[in-house]
Amino acid sequence: MTTPDPATPVTEPVKSESTLTVLLALAMNFAIAVMKAIAGVITGSAAMLAEAAHSVADTFTEGLLLTALRRSARPADRRHPFGYGKDRYFWSLLAAVSIFVSGAVFAFYEGFSTVFGEPVEQTSPGVGYVVLAIAFALESVSWTQAVRQVRREARTEGRSVLAFLRVSDDPTVKTVFMEDSAALTGLLLAFAGLGLHHLTGSSVWDGVASLLIGLLLAVAAFVLAGTNRGLLIGRQADPKLVRAVWAYLRDVPEVDQVVDLLTMAVGTDRVLLCARLDFDDALSAADLERACVRIDGELRSRWPDLDEVFLEPVPRTDPELRSRVLARYGNLL
């Protein structure tokens, strides 16, 4: 979400950079998946095969994220008057499921088979080391691009990287950042498993590394799925934006009191706003209409993320409305 400043929209550059980030990750993961699969067959390493499945899952994930970017950009129409922004959350949720099903499950299978099955003899470990080193270099390229975008957007919003990742409504860049971070960590685990198998002659280390890779992917998938679930079911807009809009409406001359303020993210950098306002009773109907038109325009000018704005005149003393507001927010208002 952009910060509450009267700045120009930054949606298009962000979309372009998100597409670049996803395309770069897709190309890198496909190349890495092929190399890891070949190395896994040659070395017989469970951790290497688990990492191959990891990269295959990441490749599928990038494909789903590209679909998310394309479909969510469609304009609003009669059947979807608020647009298709939430399509990005749906496809990103499928990407999180893909990480778990294609990556974590296979890694767990390989790990349990190796730890509790017959010992596996390691062959040509040097091939595995070389492939892991190349994969680490390629993943670093994709990870660097994701980190660059995350840092730039966090700096634009005046947040730390962790705070930005927690509240961001763009699941594509968050997914690429997390999966690339998990990929680099997984490569280190695979290297450790391959190396310990080589040094000790025990394939158990290889299996343990595979299990840890599976656990890593499962955690990443769970976090990403939770993020997209919250956005799909209707998460509130950025709290900084909500507070800024509330403060602005409170200071509007025609408004006596802000009774309620409802927001929902309907897409990346797109917010639905419904404000229930107790206007000055001395206003005529024409004055009220002009005030609503002016407030709508000023809100959109100050905060370009506001996609749809609804202003509802209500009496602050209505007991039923007040009870609903208190049930939602408690005594914080």
From TrEMBL:
<keyword id="KW-0812">Transmembrane</keyword>
<dbReference type="InterPro" id="IPR040177">
    <property type="entry name" value="SLC30A9"/>
</dbReference>
<dbReference type="GO" id="GO:0016020">
    <property type="term" value="C:membrane"/>
</dbReference>
<dbReference type="InterPro" id="IPR002524">
    <property type="entry name" value="Cation_efflux"/>
</dbReference>
<dbReference type="GO" id="GO:0008324">
    <property type="term" value="F:monoatomic cation transmembrane transporter activity"/>
</dbReference>
<dbReference type="InterPro" id="IPR027469">
    <property type="entry name" value="Cation_efflux_TMD_sf"/>
</dbReference>
<feature type="transmembrane region" description="Helical">
    <location>
        <begin position="207"/>
        <end position="226"/>
    </location>
</feature>
<feature type="transmembrane region" description="Helical">
    <location>
        <begin position="182"/>
        <end position="201"/>
    </location>
</feature>
<feature type="transmembrane region" description="Helical">
    <location>
        <begin position="129"/>
        <end position="147"/>
    </location>
</feature>
<feature type="transmembrane region" description="Helical">
    <location>
        <begin position="89"/>
        <end position="109"/>
    </location>
</feature>
<keyword id="KW-1133">Transmembrane helix</keyword>
<protein>
    <submittedName>
        <fullName>Cation diffusion facilitator family transporter</fullName>
    </submittedName>
</protein>
<keyword id="KW-0472">Membrane</keyword>
<keyword id="KW-0813">Transport</keyword>
<dbReference type="InterPro" id="IPR058533">
    <property type="entry name" value="Cation_efflux_TM"/>
</dbReference>
<feature type="domain" description="Cation efflux protein transmembrane">
    <location>
        <begin position="22"/>
        <end position="228"/>
    </location>
</feature>
<dbReference type="Pfam" id="PF01545">
    <property type="entry name" value="Cation_efflux"/>
</dbReference>
<dbReference type="GO" id="GO:0006829">
    <property type="term" value="P:zinc ion transport"/>
</dbReference>
<feature type="transmembrane region" description="Helical">
    <location>
        <begin position="20"/>
        <end position="39"/>
    </location>
</feature>
<dbReference type="InterPro" id="IPR036837">
    <property type="entry name" value="Cation_efflux_CTD_sf"/>
</dbReference>
